């Protein structure tokens, strides 16, 4: 992009007529650009009218044929200069501008704790490649859609740990979620109540207008020191809303491939009743995800339910460039006036 002329003679640069420079402008009065073809048309019409109606003087010449000389083209220079002057005036009237718009976004934000099950049952492959990886992928997409919301991560199996505190450092959150893996918690099991307790402890002192916990699990509570129902009541007391997502199908589900290359299956069942009661007690909602598309839709719906209000402040810095083309027009006008007093102009035709 060509800079605004700071020097008194910066406008005297042919780069102002490059196509890329002209395309970079916003034109306030573009109607004048559509009128540009009229300028050469008017000069053509003037020439045809003059050729047809101008007065002619009969003069006797000696017999012979007049020879063309290149200097006869010079008489068209004044008209060409004036046409350029008119074209540049049109460009100036079109008001070329460049607008530098700065958008500042602000939001009160909400606090969200993602509580993710990493127990052995999350290795089941009814989701591709498995339940845990599908949940991680949806969590990453969910984070991508947030703005100025503090988000934290809790993981659990037989025990529960806070993996990331509430933060707006989304790059850190993405790296943290990507590093979640099986066996990162030695004690296997499903300590849903303890995981909710850790999340509530992170959220309870927050002063934001909305505090949310999103629990993703595929099993019933089998460990921990806190009952899920007690944790849900505790969340309600601290105005924390809990959304529970039950992930996985019931029944016979693919688990692994044995030495013979055959798929092995296990029977599994989701404790849907428990997850529903947790969500109901904490003013949230329960969702059931049996496919990757269903899980994606659940996160989309939660994203809409817990959308923070974003305020935008727009600052527009506008610079006019019409004076550059107007200066060029004045130069061509002065040149035309000078040429009117030279041999290039036929005084008999004026």
Automatic annotation (TrEMBL):
Lineage top rank: taxon: Bacteria
Assigned keywords, A-Z: Cell membrane, Membrane, Transmembrane, Transmembrane helix
UniProt cross-references to PROSITE patterns, sorted A to Z: VWFA (PS50234)
Keyword Transport recorded: no
SMART domains per UniProt: VWA
Transmembrane segments: 31-48, 73-94, 321-339
Cross-referenced Pfam families: VWA
Matches recorded under InterPro entries: UPF0353/GerABKA_families, vWA_BatA_type, VWF_A, vWFA_dom_sf
Residue ranges annotated for the VWFA domain, each copy included: 111-302
PANTHER family: LEUCINE ZIPPER PROTEIN 4, SPORE GERMINATION PROTEIN
Protein name as it appears in the record: VWFA domain-containing protein
Organism name: Adhaeribacter arboris
